[in-house]
Amino acid sequence: MTTQPLTIHSWPQAVLHLDADAFFASCEQAIHPELRGRPVITGKERGIVSAASYEAKAKGVSRGVPLWEVKKLCPDAVILPSDYETYSLFSVRMFEILRRFSPDVEEYSIDEAFVDLTGLRRSFHGSYELIARRMQETVERELGITVSVGVSLSKVLAKIGSKHMKPQGLTLIPGRDIHLFLGRLPIEKVWGIGPNTAAFLRKFGIVTALDFALKDEGFALKHLSKPYQEIWHELNGRSVYPVVKEAKSAYQSISKVRTFTPPSSEEMFIFAQLSKNLENACIKARRYDLAAARLVIFLRSQDFRSNGVELRLDRPSAYPAELLPSLKEGFRQIYRPDILYRQTGVVLAGLVPGSKVRYSLFDDMVKIEKTAKLYCTVDMLSEKFGKHTIYHGSSLPTKSQAQHEGDRGDAAQRKVSLVKGENKRQRLGLPMLHIKI
DNA sequence: TCTGGGGTCCTAGGACCC
DNA sequence: TCTGGGGTCCTAGGACCC
Q1: What's the pTM?
Q2: Is the CB of A381 under 7 A from strand C?
């Protein structure tokens, strides 16, 4: 395999990775002191564990475990819905604290950051360890959550450091000690190495991260593609991933998927799921003022084989009314009545700023403006009354025939109201609406 | 064990052009 | 029409991450 030569940056020489401990659960415990010391779990809205506090982890609860199993493992667990708004506020404040120490902070995810510490020892009159410890303590003191930190020569090594001891760990991996950490680390635990690559590397006798790091460059060039060559350099303490402090720019794509049980092959039901996916994706696109030039549709069958199509749109759009014909066309191409499906998905790709959409002479501007106004109203109503207040008629049959059995009479509206997010409206006694376009 | 949703980047191969 | 070389762009699919 041949690829272009890699650019080796001479720095950062000291990069820190910070990872909040059980972030969502910790935020809940920070806000609700009565939950401290108790097993706390978030993810109620999804039916699986999003985050588990260390008290819950001690009982064997981990990410992704279904909630019914949690009740068995840990009957006294406090199970909460995830409150992303609140966690985002904690996140913002955490990054703000880190930036007091260095301007070079990369917001890697809601609960992780990389910080370039190179050259800071002088201004802090101390070692990198001291700087890291002060960061850690400041976050804990001001936010009431604990974090684990790793410091080393590259991002990949810093990540290994922060994972080494959790919670509240602080691990330095200086160049002379790299082999000590890598020798005990299975190759698949390295950031960027998944099960597939691990299996491939094992064929060459590579079992630990150290086995991999010790391979010569010829091996890396001959057998590996760019991402894995980069990891190989990083493991050897040669930094190739810069700390990127710029805030992440706009989305490249927006996707919505939905998994359902039992699997179904009902045409109406499947299409309604897709229609709902499309509406949800469009809502998000409009919120960021983005329009899609390409639409990807896929259906996943029981054996998790998925087949999909990508359609190029005449003009970028984030309005379901304009995209629905394409959705139908794509659906027709991939739907097979003899297959049981368990998941539908829609991806809006080729995103461009909504303000930059060009219209051609042949576009019906009156209609376009009407559509824009309509969705403006839809978005306003959603803002006011909650998501899914208004939706397309095509999204209506989001319940399978099997589930319909036993229902009767005027149940159509109520059935739809059971779809996630709408039961709240029902409890509050708000009317259910839908519009057909 | 395959839990559920939302992302990114890379590569190979085909289409098309000179 | 074939021969041959070379470049770019696009797309499908793979792999991985949180």
Answers
A1: 0.83
A2: no
